[in-house]
Design brief:
The protein has about 160 residues and is mostly helical. About 50% of the residues lie in helices and about 10% in strands. It has six helices and four strands; from the N terminus they run ααααααββββ. The strands form two sheets. Strands 1-4 form a two-stranded antiparallel sheet.
């Protein structure tokens, strides 16, 4: 029995499948990736083929529509084998959720396909002069004032989302 009340039988089965994959495919290359600081793109693509990247994406974008808990379960199991490598699918999920929710479908769909299949690697950057990258304590606020928006606060210039294929 799983002590986590949020993990049902389906998610438990997913966790076991991903754990086997992580033990067989991710863990053996951990030390070499850690030393070389190189991404194993073939491994990332294999994760994409298995549906282990962005499983929460809606089906309209090629996702499995499994929800964020499934993404969390996958991330946790990959992290057991290699925390650094697991960050790739964490960033893929984060960026893909933002793109799928706020982007124009015809613009973001090709990128979501590349991200979901492991063909592209994403990053996101945020910072404020006195807050650094602490997303929970960002001070910048955007407020509507009639027909206008007023931005109060200070930002450092960054490109908000970056993808590479």
């Amino acid at each position: 029995m799983n002590p986590n009340p949020y993990i049902n039988e389906d998610l438990q089965a997913l966790a076991e499948t991903v754990r086997r994959f992580a033990e067989e495919k991710v863990k053996p290359g951990f030390l070499e990736r850690d030393k070389s600081r190189e991404f194993d793109r073939a491994l990332l693509r294999e994760m994409g083929e298995l549906g282990f990247i962005c499983p929460e994406l809606p089906e309209q974008f090629g996702g499995l529509g499994m929800g964020c808990l499934a993404a969390g379960v996958i991330h946790e199991e990959i992290a057991r084998a290699d925390l650094s490598f697991s960050y790739l699918n964490l960033l893929a999920s984060l960026n893909s959720q933002i793109l799928s929710k706020y982007g124009q479908p015809e613009v973001v769909a090709p990128w979501l396909e590349k991200i979901r299949t492991g063909q592209a690697i994403c990053a996101i950057a945020l910072t404020e002069p006195r807050g650094g990258s602490d997303a929970a304590n960002l001070r910048l606020k955007v407020e509507r004032d009639g027909d206008f928006y007023v931005i109060n606060g200070e930002k450092t210039d960054l490109t908000p989302v970056s993808c590479s294929s």
